């Protein structure tokens, strides 16, 4: 059986709906308790191991999102916003694997308007947090 190719949707309603869903989750403290901006984000799974891995973002088991401000990972606030989108997709679609989340992040981010990106950017804290994922 021949595999069909996926077409791109020309309908912006799906992207607008997904944006509203992302904002709804960001505003619901039962879904996402807090967003922390940290200077460097070390993968807690590599703690105590010789090869440490630094992350762009991390969603812990207590529903806290950590966003790295390390310029080697997220070199500006727009990139941090894309990382925030990625972590919220993990919350919204908690049964979806990492590769699919990365694909969704890229597809959705490319289709967000400048205004939607600016709104998402406003959720990145201005101050750094001393809290780290455990």
Question: How would you summarize this macromolecular structure in one to three sentences?
Answer:
This is SprT-like domain-containing protein. This protein is mainly alpha-helical and 134 residues long. The protein has four helices and three strands; from the N terminus they run αβββααα.
Structure, explained:
This is SprT-like domain-containing protein. It comes from Candidatus Harrisonbacteria bacterium RIFCSPHIGHO2_02_FULL_42_16. The chain is globular. The protein has helices at 13-27, 77-92, 98-111, 114-121, and strands spanning 34-38, 57-59, 64-68. It has a 3-stranded mixed beta sheet with strand order 1-3-2, covered by helices on one side. The protein has a single domain, classed as Zincin-like, CATH 3.30.2010. It has 134 residues and is mostly helical. Helix 1 crosses helix 2, helix 2 (77-92) packs across helix 3 and helix 2 packs across helix 4 (114-121). The chain starts with 12 loop residues before the first helix and ends in a 13-residue tail after the last helix.
Tell me the radius of gyration.
Answer: 16 Å
| Widest β-sheet, arrangement of strands | 1-3-2
Low-confidence stretches: none
Biggest β-sheet: count, sense, barrel?
Answer: 3 strands, mixed
Hey, roughly how much beta strand do the residues contain? Answer: 5-15%
Helix content: 25-40%
CATH topology: Zincin-like
Integer tally of domains: 1
Shape: globular
Query: How many helical stretches?
Result: 4
How many angstroms does the end-to-end distance come to? 47 Å
Element-by-element helix/strand order: HEEEHHH
Content-based structural category: mainly alpha
The CATH architecture assignment turns out to be 2-Layer Sandwich
Number of strands: 3
Mean pLDDT, nearest integer?
Answer: 89
Main CATH class:
Alpha Beta
Protein name: SprT-like domain-containing protein
């Amino acid at each position: 059986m021949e595999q069909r190719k996926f077409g791109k949707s020309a309908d912006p309603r799906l992207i607008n709906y997904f944006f509203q869903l992302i904002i709804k989750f960001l505003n619901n403290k039962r879904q996402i308790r807090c967003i922390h901006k940290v200077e460097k984000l070390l993968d807690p799974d590599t703690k105590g191991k010789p090869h440490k891995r630094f992350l762009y973002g991390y969603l812990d088991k207590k529903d806290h999102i950590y966003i790295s401000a390390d310029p080697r990972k997220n070199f500006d606030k727009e990139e941090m916003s894309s990382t925030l989108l990625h972590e919220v997709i993990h919350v919204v679609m908690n049964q979806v694997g990492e590769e699919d989340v990365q694909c969704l992040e890229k597809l959705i981010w490319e289709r967000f308007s400048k205004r939607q990106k600016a709104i998402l950017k406003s959720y990145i804290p201005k101050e750094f947090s001393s809290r780290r994922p455990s």
